[in-house]
């Protein structure tokens, strides 16, 4: 089968529509658990990439880290059997338009 594996792209919530949503209570964790949660969140969340539907941006604070970050994105694409169109992507750009913003070494600015 070609394309994206169903385990990645297909999600279902088995919810009875007759049930009303219930807001959960705020959970309080110990300081060490809070630090562990924060560390995990910082590693799962867009540290090196910004992805929105079919737009992907690999970002790096240091020029020397960029190839590794780009390799991480390409490895994820390869794992999910996704392909990029080289005509639509620019590699090694120091500034680029992304979702209506200009992203450069100076930061993110409206276009």
Please characterize this protein's 3D structure.
This protein has 111 residues and is of the alpha+beta class. Helices cover 29% and strands 17% of the residues. It contains three helices and five strands. The strands form two sheets. It has a three-stranded antiparallel sheet, with no helix packed on it. A two-stranded antiparallel sheet has the order 1-2. Strand 1 and strand 2 (55-58) form a beta hairpin. The termini are far apart. 0% of the residues are buried. The model has no long low-confidence stretch (mean pLDDT 80). This is Reverse transcriptase domain-containing protein. InterPro entries: DNA/RNA_pol_sf, Rev_trsase/Diguanyl_cyclase, RNA-dir_DNA_polymerase, RT_dom. It comes from Lithospermum erythrorhizon (Purple gromwell). Pfam families: RVT_1. Residues 36-103 form the Reverse transcriptase domain.
């Amino acid at each position: 089968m070609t394309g994206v594996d169903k385990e990645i792209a297909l999600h279902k919530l088995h919810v009875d529509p007759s049930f009303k949503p219930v807001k959960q209570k705020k959970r309080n964790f110990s300081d060490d658990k809070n630090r562990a949660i924060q560390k995990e969140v910082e590693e799962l969340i867009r540290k090196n990439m910004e992805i929105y539907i079919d737009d992907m941006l690999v970002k790096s604070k240091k020029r020397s880290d960029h190839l590794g970050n780009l390799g991480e994105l390409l490895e994820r694409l390869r794992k999910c059997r996704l392909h990029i169109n080289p005509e639509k992507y620019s590699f090694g750009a120091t500034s680029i338009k992304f979702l209506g913003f200009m992203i450069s070494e100076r930061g993110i600015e409206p276009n």
